[in-house]
Amino acid sequence: MQKQTITDLDLAGKRVLIRVDFNVPIKDGLISDDTRLRASLGTIQYALAQGATVVLASHLGRPNGTRSDTLSLKPVADRLEKLLNHPVFFSPETTGTAAIEAVLEAGSGGIVLLENLRFHSGEEKNDSEFARELSLLADIFINDAFGVAHRAHASTEGIVKHLKQSAAGLLMTAELNYLGDALWNPKRPFAAVLGGAKISGKLEVIQNLLTQVDAVFIGGAMAYTFLKGRNIPIGHSLVEDELVDIAVGLMKDAETKNVRFELPIDHVVSERFDTAVAMDTLAVGDVNIGQRLGVDIGPRTVSHYAQSLRDAGTIIWNGPMGVFETPAFSTGTRALARAVADVSGVTIVGGGDSISAVRQAGVLDQITHVSTGGGAVLEFLAGKTLPGLAALPDRITSDF
What we know:
Blueprint: E1 15-19, E2 26-27, E3 30-31, H1 35-39, H2 41-49, E4 53-57, H3 74-84, E5 89-91, H4 96-106, E6 111-114, H5 121-124, H6 128-135, E7 140-143, E8 165-168, H7 170-184, E9 190-194, H8 203-209, E10 215-218, H9 223-229, H10 244-256, E11 260-262, E12 266-270, E13 280-283, E14 293-297, H11 299-309, E15 314-318, H12 331-341, E16 346-350, H13 352-360, E17 369-371, H14 375-381, H15 387-390
Parallel strand pairs: 1-4, 1-7, 4-6, 5-6, 7-8, 9-10, 9-15, 10-11, 15-16, 16-17
Antiparallel strand pairs: 2-3, 12-13, 12-14
Helix pairs in contact: 8-14, 9-10, 11-12, 12-13
């Protein structure tokens, strides 16, 4: 994982194309969460300080190769300009004459943000010609978009073949250092807290983590597939029936590997997952769940998990503990966020809802590392190769 980084290269007087992940929520031209913008500021500021012209490239949403005014990156350029306190030129085109002119206009020490990469079908197809056109805008390529490192796209993998120098940005490097250390050199005890709706989305993650961690704490709807495997009444809770046997196998595997495998001991139940109808807190296994479904972990589970995690050396948390988007069912997730923040060991949080939880709980700055990756985090934790990372050259080291 010793990839060449931006600090290994001479950027002075060079045009540096930085692939960033500015896929932020925008409504009516307003950005509601600029976490991903702020996460890349360090790399951008470093390149500027080294005397580079900075060219930023990102996707936004899923326009499927066609232009969409609602998915333009222009609002991002405006917000970025304020965050950096530095002019940001916006190119209405991603490649071609207009983009080249924007880079020239920005000049030495300037910043240009290109229009949405995914307005071009060649981006997601990893089209060689589109990658070549992007490369014409720069002398050096820096990948700072860990959130799309698991995608072999023109701006993450293809462009590397067209430029002589490429490296990882500061954010990408931080992601790899924290996640890599957690997997291969963790401070112990090492615990994984996993939530979300389905096991199917985290199956390989759980399988791989069982070879690394000392304990796993499960929450969210995915817990009910495991609970059904233990023949515990779950009412109408979400369950993946086709994966019940696999869930049982995972629990047996954990036992074989002497990995502590924890499931909720109480839960909040309701008639519906989108509104607090007939809301109640029951012990897990209480038949009074009836036709209701589980929507959040209960206070006893929060207390038990918090107590168990208190002395952890490393914690990785991905996925909410309940139907987090419904405020009444977000209590468990937010309470667990506060508990994780109180841990003195290394704490790593990844996934949109998990990040929202630590932010809403007011403890974002108490987390050791907040990962901007979503799917990339899961694939990394599953032990998979990330194309956008694999394409970058290794750092050249010497024993002399």
